[in-house]
Design a protein that fits this description.
Distance between the termini of chain C: 46 Å
Number of domains of chain B: 2
CATH superfamily of the largest domain in chain B: Response regulator
Order of helices and strands of chain C: HHHHEEHHHHHHH
CATH class of the largest domain in chain B: Alpha Beta
Strand order of the largest sheet of chain C: 1-2
Chains: A mainly alpha (320), B alpha/beta (443), C mainly alpha (293)
Distance between the termini of chain B: 58 Å
Number of strands of chain B: 17
CATH topology of the largest domain in chain B: Rossmann fold
Strand content of chain C: under 5%
Radius of gyration of chain B: 25 Å
Helix content of chain B: 25-40%
Helix content of chain C: over 70%
Number of strands of chain C: 2
Oligomer: heterotrimer
Number of helices of chain B: 12
Largest interface: A-B, 74 and 65 residues
Shape of chain C: globular
Structural class of chain B: alpha/beta
Chain lengths: 320, 443, 293
């Protein structure tokens, strides 16, 4: 391990966060809005990265955790009149609780079986959302009225429709998740997770409760995914079953793989990259997904470990 | 680079950095971010200022070019382009030409909201129109409202009229499912039978049919014998037919999506010659040729149509003119490819919506963004759109409170592999009490 | 209809979908088992088979049996060819890295889907079955072609089994699946085996698409469900076990239909989905799983 990285692991995160903070004053309205969305989804990717990148749990069902947060926040705000902060936290809690429940059952499997079990649970959640369409409005979904999407501090009322507020709330959530990810990696818990990703039986023999650690990783992952979903519901006012469908389990996997599995910055890069890839591709062709597909293939050939992952390796190769 | 991967567990060496990022990579990353920001600010401006008498009116067209709605999206695009071309040929909107800006939303609500944002903040259009699928409408509408972008939906969903969206959202060019369904009930119960089984997709579109039709038929002495909600990914339907009691007189079906052909085929195989009356909605067969193999079973059955696919169903000069302009032949297919069947009962909504925008702009004196409030208020006070070139499907009664138009509906019978109109409803048949009042909301 | 008749119908329907599923899943099982990579575009190979079947029928004209037979050959050949190209251009280059393959095949999925959208179009189109006759049971009519599909699937499954156990290529495949390094040490051309397996996997999916299209229809998004279902079947059956794949296909295919007789459709799907997870939780290696994946 090179000494330099160990010395100042917070430098890169700080640079990134300062850049993001400053960007809002420079960016035109369009990209300002895009970055808000990217940051919200990057939290989802960070959550996924925690399970997959750090603990080696390849889940194909993370959409259910995002949806838990989306519906938890959306329905509690819409039907129960929760305030925005309360609804947000409730959404995160829903993600956490679901991840705990699913983890208790699913973590008894590993590898590909785990992939299918998570996929199946996610499908079941999707179908359940459709089943209770009286409340959830199923795939069509429902809208959160502007009047409830407000933050009150005594006399002042701030509306969540304000772009600046939205950007900074998203940035705050992203920063917290990003820093959590960095901190976790450096912490003893993080080291156990990485170790058990590499060789679980060895870690078990050292006396660690590997099931407990994996459950912890999945739970935090679920909580972050839920917070991302909650943020989406409250900031963008829409709750719908589309977000519980399989593609929203594939997206975080894709974002994390693109950015670099197990890296701290990878999730943001991957999420942003995919977003702009789709956006630029739609400018130049009427079937933008074809361009996206080609670029994905090329990216994988050039950056086999994801953008950040491959760059890290090359940098290390140059220095040694 | 990567070593051999015969061990399919992810092998990471001890020295691998899974935490933190090397400085070089960080600088590269930061540089990339800065580069994107710089490039972005250069591409930030694409609009032209509204000055001068020939400055165009920019209209954003949110279309389902890809995704499950692609079959509709294609025809929506052709119709919209035809309308824009013709309007521009005949003087534009109040002398200003229309500039159409097109974005694909992939029939996805997340992308839809992003595209609305792009229309408002990057393309800087005056209006947005064109969304069809309800979940995309509902996903996109909040952003339109926040951005104060007049958003014209061509969806036939009940969402706009339900009052649950916002005051910037309108559906003036196409009728909604509630009026369609309730205007069918009298004819069905009087002509086909009173014991009705309903087969519908188990999502909001299907539930609307279930709820509105059950209520309407019930009040006319009809009885729903079975309700069969079909889950979205279902590809085989035979087992559902088995649940229909033999006393059923009418099967009311609204299956949509690619599996419709299977649905009809299996229905034929299951019931054979001994079948109840069949009443469906042309949504099932938009862009599908009635003469397709496997659809023979539909012979003698009935369909709701919003605008008759076959020209003889609505032989007015306006309808013929419109048909010619959008390139559809007398059988409802593309003039350049008789196998390319149009989504004729939906696409007229784009044509008529553009004409409504034209009328609203001209009547309100809209010149630029700050006139949006005046435009909306003017539109809300409009009551009637006359049948004619602007509204070839028929005249529309516009109810400003709920931002929704009401129009006539058609019932057609499948005869000799064609659709023949057997009944036309009146606007009154479909009128319902408004459930909400957008005009009371602040703008 | 009486309950017994409903159940019988459900079993028939389940058998038909299980047969098609078995053929599709077999393709994925081979790829997953031998190459240890997930081909996310596997469902698109299935879709291509269906679309090619329609194209052949369209070109040939009014002779459904002829176009069916031609499609049964052309479909897997074309798709197999695409598979070999993908293997050579992409998978080899990333050295079958599992994560890289996931991203690459997601890209491939987008490419194939969109290319189909552009060339074939967004609408769903029907294909006439090669022969059409109705079997009249006392309670309902049933399409004879569907039963033919079951027969052809069984033949394909038997043929694949024969190929795997009796031919040299089959031997190479099984050896490579068992232990790649030792197989290489024995002089087996592992890279070429991979290409053959990938082509075979795609070809099987394509044939399944050709078989199913007269029962359903050809649509550019139709690959999504087969991908999910065959993936589930392969894992539940147990990685590396073809027997397990087949058994799982039939159990899942038939039970799906049978459960829906007892519950409302959406609830039935929820129940079926949870049951599948239960199997895996109780037996994590799958029904016939050999070693831990």
């Amino acid at each position: 391990m090179t000494g330099r990285k160990q010395d100042r692991p917070w430098r890169t995160p700080m640079i990134v966060l300062v850049l993001l903070l400053a960007a809002q004053f420079v960016l035109p309205a369009y990209h300002h809005g895009n970055l808000t969305r990217i940051m919200v989804f990057a939290v989802f990717a960070i959550g996924y990265n925690l399970a997959f990148g750090y603990a080696g749990l390849l889940s194909l069902g993370h959409a259910m955790f995002f949806a838990a947060g989306l519906y938890g926040a959306g329905m509690s705000a819409h039907f129960l009149g929760f305030s925005m902060p309360l609804a947000f936290l409730f959404g995160g809690l829903c993600g956490l609780v679901l991840a705990l429940a699913v983890g208790l059952v699913a973590l008894r499997t590993r590898g590909v079986s785990f992939m299918i079990v998570t996929l199946m649970f996610s499908q079941a959640i999707f179908l359940t959302i459709l089943y209770f369409n009286e409340f959830t409005r199923g795939d069509e979904g429902f809208v959160l009225a502007q009047e409830i999407r407000q933050l009150r501090f005594g006399e002042t009322v701030l509306s969540l429709t304000d772009p600046t507020l939205r950007y900074n709330l998203a940035l705050g959530l992203f920063a917290a998740s990003y820093l959590l990810g960095v901190a976790l990696l450096r912490s003893p818990i993080g080291r156990v997770l990485v170790a058990l990703r590499e060789n679980e039986s060895r870690v078990q023999m050292l006396g660690y409760n590997t099931f407990g650690y994996r459950l912890l990783a999945l739970s935090i992952s679920g909580a972050l995914s839920g917070l991302s979903g909650a943020a989406y519901a409250l900031l963008f006012a829409y709750v719908g079953a589309t977000f519980a469908a399989t593609q929203y389990s594939i997206y975080p996997l894709l974002w994390v793989l693109l950015g670099g599995v197990g890296t701290a910055l990878g999730p943001l890069i991957g999420t942003g990259l995919m977003f702009y890839l789709v956006d630029f591709a739609s400018e130049i062709t009427s079937s933008y997904l074809i361009v996206v597909g080609v670029v994905l293939v090329l990216l994988v050939i050039v950056f086999p470990k994801g953008v950040i992952g491959t760059l890290q390796e090359k940098w290390r190769g140059l220095r040694s | 680079m990567t070593g051999k991967s015969d061990d399919h567990r992810k092998v990471r060496k001890v020295g691998d950095s899974a935490f933190g990022v090397s400085r070089r990579a960080a600088i590269k990353g930061a540089g990339a971010l800065a580069g994107v920001a710089a490039a972005a600010s250069l591409t930030g401006f694409t609009a032209r200022a509204h000055s001068g008498s020939d400055a165009p009116i920019r209209i954003g067209f949110q279309v389902h070019r890809t995704g499950i709605g692609a079959a509709y999206g294609r025809w929506y695009e052709r119709t919209s382009r035809a309308a824009v071309d013709y309007i521009n040929e005949t003087g534009g909107i109040g002398g200003h030409p229309i500039e159409l800006v097109i974005e694909d939303d992939g029939t996805d609500p997340k992308r839809g909201a992003e595209v609305v944002e792009k229309f408002a903040t990057q393309h800087k259009v005056d209006f947005v129109f064109g969304t069809l699928f309800s979940h995309v409408v509902i996903g996109s509408a909040p952003r339109a409202g926040e951005l104060k972008m007049p958003y014209f939906v061509v969806s036939e969903g009940h969402h706009v009229a339900s009052g649950k969206l916002n005051r910037y959202v309108f559906q003036p060019g196409i009728t909604d499912v509630r009026q369609q369904v309730i205007s069918m009930a009298p004819w069905i119960t009087s002509n086909l039978g009173k014991k009705i089984a309903m087969i519908f997709p188990d999502f909001a579109f299907g539930h609307d049919h279930r709820d509105f039709f059950s209520a309407a038929a019930g009040s006319l002495g009809g009885e729903i014998t079975t309700l069969l909600p079909i889950p979205p990914t279902e590809s085989s339907f035979t087992k559902y037919f088995a649940k229909i009691p033999s006393s059923t007189e009418v099967i009311y079906h609204v299956m949509v999506g690619p599996a419709v052909l299977t649905f009809v085929k299996e229905m034929g195989e299951f019931f054979g010659n001994n079948r109840p009356e069949l009443f469906g909605f042309i949504d099932s067969l938009e862009a599908v040729d009635i003469a397709s193999p496997g659809l023979d079973y539909l012979e003698g059955s009935y369909f709701w149509e919003a605008m008759p696919r076959y020209a003889d169903g609505l032989p007015t000069a306006a309808a013929a003119f419109y048909r010619d302009k959008v390139g559809v032949d007398a059988n409802g297919a593309s003039m350049s490819d008789s196998k390319d069947v149009a989504t004729f009962s939906h696409m007229f909504g784009c044509w008529e919506t553009l004409y409504v925008i034209k009328a609203a702009v001209e009547q309100s004196g809209y010149r630029s963004g700050k006139d949006k409030v005046a435009l909306i208020e003017t539109l809300e006070n409009m009551k009637w759109f006359n049948e004619g070139i602007a509204h070839p499907q028929g005249g529309k009664q516009f109810v400003g409170q709920i931002h929704q138009s009401f129009g006539r509906q058609f019932i057609s019978k499948v005869e000799n592999k064609r659709l023949k109109v057997v009944h036309t409803t009146t606007i009154e048949d479909g009128l319902y009490e408004p459930e909400a009042d957008y005009t009371k909301q602040a703008l | 209809m009486s309950f017994g008749a409903q159940l019988f119908l459900a079993v028939l329907e389940g058998t038909v979908s299980a047969s098609v599923l078995a053929v599709t899943a077999l393709g994925l099982s081979l790829v997953f088992g031998v190459m240890r990579v997930v081909n996310v575009a596997h469902g698109e190979f299935f879709m291509l088979g269906a679309v090619i079947a329609w194209s052949v029928a369209f070109t040939v004209g009014d002779m459904p049996l002829v176009s069916f037979l031609i499609a049964l050959i052309v479909g897997p050949l074309v798709v197999g060819g695409i598979a070999v190209a993908v293997d050579w251009l992409i998978l080899k280059r990333i050295d079958y890295n599992p994560e890289g393959t996931i991203v690459a095949t997601i890209g491939l999925l987008y490419i194939i889907q969109q290319a189909t959208l552009i060339l074939y179009g967004p609408e769903a189109r029907a294909v006439e079955p090669p022969f059409y006759f109705l079997i009249q049971f006392p309670w309902f009519g049933y399409s004879g072609y569907k039963l033919i599909v079951v027969g052809i699937s069984l033949m394909l499954l038997l043929g694949t089994w024969y190929g795997l156990t009796r031919t040299r290529l089959g031997l190479y495949m099984r050896a490579t699946q068992y232990d790649r390094e030792i197989a290489q040490a024995f002089g087996i051309p592992v890279r070429r085996v991979y290409a053959a397996v990938f082509a075979l996997g795609g070809g099987l999916a394509a044939i399944a698409g050709v078989l199913v299209v007269p029962i359903q229809q050809a649509h550019y998004l139709m690959g999504h469900n087969p991908l999910l279902m065959s993936f589930i079947v392969v894992i539940v059956g147990g990685l590396g076990s073809l027997r397990g794949t087949l058994l799982a296909a039939f159990v899942i295919g038939i039970s799906d239909g049978v459960i829906s007789v007892f519950f409302t459709p959406t609830l039935a799907k929820i129940v079926a989905t949870l049951l599948v997870s239960l199997v895996l939780v109780v037996r994590p290696a799958g029904l016939f799983g050999e070693k831990e994946p």
